[in-house]
Each structure stands twice: as C-alpha cells, then as structure tokens.
Amino acid sequence: MLPCKFPAALFGLALSLAVPWSPAAAAPVKSVVIVHGAFAGAFAADLPPADAAFLAHSQVFAAKGAFTTPAGEPAWKSKPSWALVATADRSINPELELEMARRAGSHIRSVEASHAVYAAKPEAVAALIVEAAEAVSQ
What we know:
The model has no long low-confidence stretch (mean pLDDT 83). The longest helix is centred in the C-terminal third of the chain and has 16 residues, at 122-137. By secondary structure, this protein is of the alpha+beta class. It contains five helices and five strands. The strands form two sheets. Strands 1-2-3 form a three-stranded antiparallel beta sheet. Strands 4-5 form a two-stranded parallel ribbon. 35% of the residues lie in helices and 14% in strands. The protein has a single domain, classed as Rossmann fold. The chain is globular and about 45 Å long. It has helices at residues 36-43, 49-58, 94-103, 117-120, 122-137; strands spanning 15-18, 31-34, 62-63, 82-86, 107-111.
C-alpha cells in the first residue's frame, strides 16, 4: 500500500473518532474530525491563529465511509491531471503527495504550504487551476 512507504504525517495523531448526535438520526454516525487543539499544527500551520481556529471549529464531520468506500476508475487514467504538492503539509506526507501525482502522470507544481494550501497560498492554487483550464481548452 502506497501510504506505508512514507513516514506518517501528524494528521493521524490528531484525529478523533466522534459520534455526533442529532434528533433526526436513528442511530449515532461515527465520523472523523481533527482534534481542535491539534488542528493548526496538523492542518493549517501557516495560517494566522484566528483563521486556523475558525477552520478547526467549523470543520464538518467526515463520514468514515469517505475513507473506505471504493471510488471506481480514477479519472487520471483517461484525462490529464494537475497536482499541487504542499511541501509543508503535515496531514499528508509531501513525499506521498508527490508519489501519487507522479503515478497519475500529473503536471506537478509545488508550493511551500500546509494542507490548507487553498487558504494559505490562494494565488498558487488559482494559477494551477488557470494552467489546467487553459491546457484542456486548447
């Protein structure tokens, strides 16, 4: 398995299994969240503390099935793909990100950023989207 080839990221140590309850739910649903106290370090280390705290408190519970349900045929097998590797990511090992991007044959760009690269380096994210859009529009 590919993730086993690389050192673990901090993300795994910051996860908590939560059991949210709502009156509409017949039974509790097990979900995964990042512990608030560990969120900034594991997910958004390069954001201002107030922004990281906001993200920590506004995270939506990820259903456990999101990590275990087969996805089917990956689009990168038949379509061009682009990848932005966040080299300071503590949620996914950047070496693993790079390996997955290479395996997919992606056009790879790197940026010094955390997993929250979309908030920390929005210009880099936008530039990659524009590059991809222009390439597939020709």
